[in-house]
Design brief:
Oligomer: single chain
CATH topology of the largest domain: Rossmann fold
CATH architecture of the largest domain: 3-Layer(aba) Sandwich
CATH superfamily of the largest domain: P-loop containing nucleotide triphosphate hydrolases
Radius of gyration: 28 Å
Structural class: alpha/beta
Strand content: 5-15%
Number of strands: 16
CATH class of the largest domain: Alpha Beta
Distance between the termini: 17 Å
Helix content: 40-55%
Strand order of the largest sheet: 2-1-3-4-5
Number of domains: 4
Length: 454
Amino acid sequence: MRGKIMIVDDDKAMCDMLAATLAKQEFSPVIFTSAEEAFKTIMKEDFDVLLTDLNMKGLNGIQLCDRVVANRPNLPVIIITAFGSMETAISAIRAGAYDFINKPFDTDILVLMLDRAVEHSRLKERIRILTETEDKDSQFENIIGNSGVMKKMFERISRAAESDAAILITGESGTGKELVAKALHHKSKRGDKPFITVNCSAIPETLLESELFGYKKGAFTDAKTDKKGLFLLADTGTLFLDEIGEMPVLLQAKLLRALEENTVRPLGGNTEEHFDVRIVSATNRNVDLAVEQGKFREDLYYRLNVVNIEVPPLRSRRNDIILIAEHFLHLFTSRREINIEKISKSAIERLLLYDWPGNVRELKNCIERAVALTNHNQIIVEDLPDKIRNYSESNISFVENESGELMTMSEVERRYIIYVLKKTKFNKSLAARILDFDRKTLYNKLEYYKIDVH
């Protein structure tokens, strides 16, 4: 549907005619012959546009507009009048009307006006949600999301932050695991203490031990002075071990001992030094599989994974894609002090279709690139990278992942469920029949794979 339109006119025949006309144009009309009843409904239900006659018994169109603007300011009001004088137009605009149209009107003009008003309404709503999300989740390190899976994750972060239990954050590359770690820290009782990060995959094995535990002067050739390790630098705060799955096995044993004893011995030192640190780790690897293969110590895994927080991939929360894209659009246009009003409807469609293997990081890069290259006052399809612009559902691979590696059967199943849901326009009953699932099984799969279809 192009939009949910409330029609208000005390002439029932006019209401029916407008409703029939708009229904043919794929709008969803709801009619009222009483402005008072219409206003009561507006306060309880959501509509994209209010289309109201000017002259009505009791509450007239201008008075109704006044009430709507005062109580539901994001709902555009279009006033229909047979009195097309300048005074009427001025009164309507002063009342806060989005636009007005004179009787008799051309249907094409009315439809164009409604399309613009619907777009305006939905943009205002997205801005409202974005603003509320950023305000509400300021303690969540600007993790943007209003979908069901993200609300569950925010709730889990809030609960987990209250304890000192070790937390393992899992999720694909680019989903924002470090932002989750920072949110956990800032919402905890250690929030005003140090937050120290170490990327276990970015530091050579020979240096990682000295980075974590520190060293004493003379411990090796270049050790000219004592150096505190990250455990001691993070004392009373949080130590974030990013990409923990990449830590060498020999060093894992030393890390486990440090966590069990709450002490470290710097390289070249003779005494143990105590620390008080909350440990948060993150990985994009399948640690269970790494444990089975002997690449990660099982005892260390259980020590680090007291509480697990999984960050959902962007493709499983498509309702958030435009919200995040508009956040980055505002961010990059503000930095460059340029005026790009919005992302065009056709560009939005391409963003929603794409599968986002690089997750939020890839979306951020996409919007930054579009802002840098566009010559328009909005982001259009031509501003998007070729792989997004030319993407189609037939590109989805059910055999290999984005790096060309063979994927697990559970990943194949997850992708195929999403594929069928898209093909059925998210009709869950039809999708369940095609997949040969009963509805309960499908809902269990959606929950298990964290596929958000709301």
